[in-house]
Amino acid sequence: MDPVVRRYLADLVTAVQDVLGPDLVGVYAAGSVALGAYRPGRSDVDVAVVCRDTLPRRTREDLVSRLRHEALPCPARGLELVAYTRAVAGSGTPEPGFEVELNTGPRMPFRATLAPGDRPTADGRFWYGLDRSILHQRGQPLTGPPAGEVFAELSPGDLRDLLVAALRWWLARSVPPGDGPATATVDAVLGACRALVRVHDGDWLSKVAAGRRVIALGRDPDLVRRCVDARAGGPLPDDAAARAFQQRVLDEIAAG
Q1: Which of 5, 11, 89, 193 could form a disulfide with 210 if both were Cys (CB 3.0 to 4.6 A apart)?
Q2: In angstroms, rounded to a whole number, what is the distance separating the alpha carbons of residues 211 and 226?
């Protein structure tokens, strides 16, 4: 783990312990940190907090106050933190079910959502079940029991439904504003690679690692390699080819 991120996460755990006390079950690194793909200057820090029971509104507000960038400076692009009860974490449900969602950082728009119903539908509701599936398989405990004991896996049907919803969301998001390709296309293609690898191999990988595995399988290697290279500053892929690849992956996963 990046040493600057390690220190930040240690301070974050201390702050969460101060707020939740004995109600805290565990704190877990997710996203690029858990998947071994954190890149300084580009990546977010993703964290899941698990508490014993539903939190009073005042406690949720205190978590936001203690963890927002102005109180605990984030060394990454931003912090994406979600808090769940242990019941939700272990339920295997596809629903959001969170207590608190916090986005904060030097290059990230601030957002604090204290109930799932307050989250805009257009932002997608598939993230949470997929994130908990990743945590079940690859979550890194910062304090508390192993992630695999706390977070449950999705059923195959729910996993497929959430992946389909995510692929459709990315397809809509990657439409370019003009004639040129959108930068979101790179993440959309690599996200499709990750979905493909999860369905076929059962592994949750980082986007780039999933892209490399798809290249090795000979699935649109030129396009996917271009997207992997674009992550390191290379030219963007052709948007039409990228969208066609995403659609093929979507159709394949939707067909089961």
Answers
A1: 193
A2: 10
Report the C-alpha gap between 22 and 239 in whole angstroms: 50
Q: In sequence order, what DSSP letters do the residues of 38-64 get, joined into one string?
A: --TTT--EEEEEEESSPPPHHHHHHHH
Is the Cα torsion angle 163, 153, 157, 53 positive or negative in sign?
negative
Q: Is the dihedral of CA 27, 204, 97, 123 positive or negative?
A: positive
Cα 86 to Cα 5: distance, rounded to the nearest angstrom: 26
Q: Which of 12, 2, 17 is nearest to 73 (CA)?
A: 12
Query: pTM score, two decimals?
Result: 0.93
Q: Which H or E run contains 10?
A: helix 3-20
Q: Where are the beta strands (DSSP E) in the chain?
A: 24-30, 45-51, 79-85, 100-105, 108-113, 140-143
**Burial group, residue 123, by CB count within 10 angstroms (0-12, 13-18, 19+):** exposed
138-197 pLDDT, tens per residue? Answer: 999 999 999 999 999 999 999 999 999 999 999 987 555 544 455 688 999 999 999 999
Q: How do beta strands 100-105 and 108-113 pair?
A: antiparallel
Residue at 140: amino acid letter: Q
Quick check: helix, strand or coil at residue 109?
Answer: strand
Residue pLDDT, tens place only, 75-95: 999 999 999 999 999 999 999
Contact 108, 44 (CB under 8 A): yes
